[in-house]
Known about the structure:
The protein is α/β, with parallel strands linked by helices. It is built from 16 helices and 21 strands.
Amino acid sequence: MAASQSNGQGASVKGAKLLKRVMSDFIGLNTTYPLASGGQSRRVYLDSTASTLMMGVAQQAIGAMLEHYANTHSLLHNSARLATSNYRWAHERMLSFVGADPDIYTAYFTGSGATAGMNRLARLFKELRPDRDTALVSIMEHHSNDLPHRKHLGRVVHLPNKMRVGSVDLVALEALLEQEQGRVNYIAVTGVSNVTGIINPIHEIAKLAHKYDAFILVDAAQMVAHIPVQMSGRDDPEENIDALVFSGHKTYVPGSPGVVVARLDHLMQTEPVEVGGGMVARVLVDHYSVTNKFPDREEAGTPNIPGAIGLATAIEVLDRIGMQLLYDEEEQLLAYALEQMMSVPGVIIYGDPDIKACPRVSAISFNVGDKHHSIVAAILNDYHNIAVRNECFCAHPYVIEMMPEETADFVALSDEAVIDLQAPKPGMVRASFGLYNTRADIDRLRTALEDIQQNFDQYAPLYEIGGSDHEYQHTSFEAAGEATFNIPGMLDSLLTRDP
């Protein structure tokens, strides 16, 4: 056996052992809540596409770092030097994790998950080429990779998907690029849909973008924790990605910042939007000059040092396991989930369920017959302690496209009528997965869906529409709220305890 093959197999075995160890080390895996039917059960967390649970080792790294905590931008006392060096390492890990050449790209941290980064890049591309007023944006996008382009660039043309609601239609994309040639500034596309988990061919899209002198911006919020990513160093350099954004809270570290990875030559051409301490070279009474150092130039103010180090720790762990191994494992889990869910009569899966023909990871959106998504999600929580998300997942155009008949009346409403609407909105239920989920979690979901189908007539009278969101709520059972956990109550317990 060749040495490289032996090393590869050894790394795979080592990665599998580490995965087994890490997947059970997440905060909240053993959280229990009361059930409407009586008693308690362990929560099954199937809402990772919204936000993942905290990786235990990342929390430990943050705690250890706080023993040495100080602000960055100084090397003259021990703690500041340690904070600065570890914060620098965190940036380096972001670049290597997404395969970005540090001579070409920089990585910097932002607030608001991916949203702040998307807004920055939309403004950047507008300033770089003010004569190009159009962004091509896929219909699949989360609002964070749609609305910033509408606001800052002005003109957005939405890309259609392949038939059966698959990935971006490359033939239609090239036709649009030809039609809009000279106007298209950039293409903005998700790597993985937050609704269906369907994977887009970002490098083929990049090649088409560059063929027509457009940039490509990738929303990798749902991608980097599930799939190997390589922004640069492709065999064909036209497949390289110009800019990419992702969120720490979707990468196993809630409370960590968003990440932007972008080309240095692009960022150097414009002044940062946010100004303040740390991003300047000199400040005088009548003027200031911006530093040429990255990532400092893009990170005004005091950074989220603990969050960045926690995120870098989680990414280090993912790399040590191996992203290809994680992808392969999740593909098997997703195939099992689709098989089990589709075995329940009446369950409707959105997006092509054939993962060989239409690869997907991380999420499955569905409905149960004609039952409203809100009551299905409520029953899953109240009677089965399964945490899922429902409605439109901040991707309204995509959901509307997949449910044209069910959403027609809603689409016809005026904006004022929607604001005053006293009824649940149309939508779906979404089960989404992290590396801590198991087949046992899928089995509980299948059993719960069977229960809803078989006993819905008994459940329905127990629910009514209420609350500020006009969702279905149980009439006699109060789901976990402030009585279950609240910070003032926790403080009362901690601060009155004998030392």
